[in-house]
Amino acid sequence: MKKELKYTFSREAAAIQKQQLLLNDDEDAITISVEGKPSILASVDLFVKDSADNVLFHRQLGTGGNVITIANDIRRASNGAIPCMLTKGVYTIELVLWHDARSHLLHTARVDVVCESGCAGQADPCGTVVWMDRRGKLSGYDPDHMKRNHTGWYKGDFHCHTVLSDGHERLSNQMAKADLMGLDFYSATEHNLVPATWVETDLLVICGTEITTIYGHANAFGLKKRPDNLDRVCAGDSREAFLDILGQLHAERSVISINHPFLVPWQWSCPDYPLDKVDCLEIINDPTYPNNHEANQKAVRLIDAMWNDGWQICGIGGSDTHALLHEWYTPESGPSIVGDPTTHVYSEGLSQNKILEALRKCHVFVTRYIEVNFCMRENGREVLPGDAMPEPGTFEAVFRFDNVREPIHLFVIRDGVRESLRLEFNFEYRRATASYRVSWSTDAYHWMRFGAEDEKGDCIFYANPVYCCEREHQFDTFGAAIDEIA
Question: For 281, phi and psi rounded to 5 degrees?
Answer without folding.
Answer: -130, 130
